[in-house]
């Protein structure tokens, strides 16, 4: 790549920028693997929309964007007569 960088400087810089981008094969493989776990033989009747929603939830929990403890606390707070302080 460096042997033509003086003859084609703009193309050389563009190639360096473009070729430096890593492929996303690992994240795609993780998504397909996670989808395979969700779509087992016993859950074969899941519709496309519900399947997608489950995958989004799993991703949010895994990435830390959603926490089960926080969700449970919001649910507890919705009960009548519950105090507003955390347990």
TrEMBL record:
Residues 4-49 form the HAT C-terminal dimerisation domain. Pfam families: Dimer_Tnp_hAT (PF05699). One of its GO terms (molecular function) is protein dimerization activity. Coiled coil: none annotated. InterPro entries: HATC_C_dom, RNaseH-like_sf. This is HAT C-terminal dimerisation domain-containing protein. It comes from Collybiopsis confluens.
């Amino acid at each position: 790549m460096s042997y033509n960088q003086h003859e084609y400087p703009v193309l050389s810089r563009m190639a360096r920028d473009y070729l430096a981008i890593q492929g996303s094969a690992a994240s795609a493989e993780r998504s397909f693997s996670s989808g395979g776990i969700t779509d087992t033989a016993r859950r074969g009747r899941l519709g496309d929309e519900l399947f997608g929603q489950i995958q989004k939830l799993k991703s949010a929990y895994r990435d830390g964007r959603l926490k089960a403890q926080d969700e449970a606390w919001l649910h507890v707070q919705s009960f009548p007569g519950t105090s507003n302080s955390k347990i």
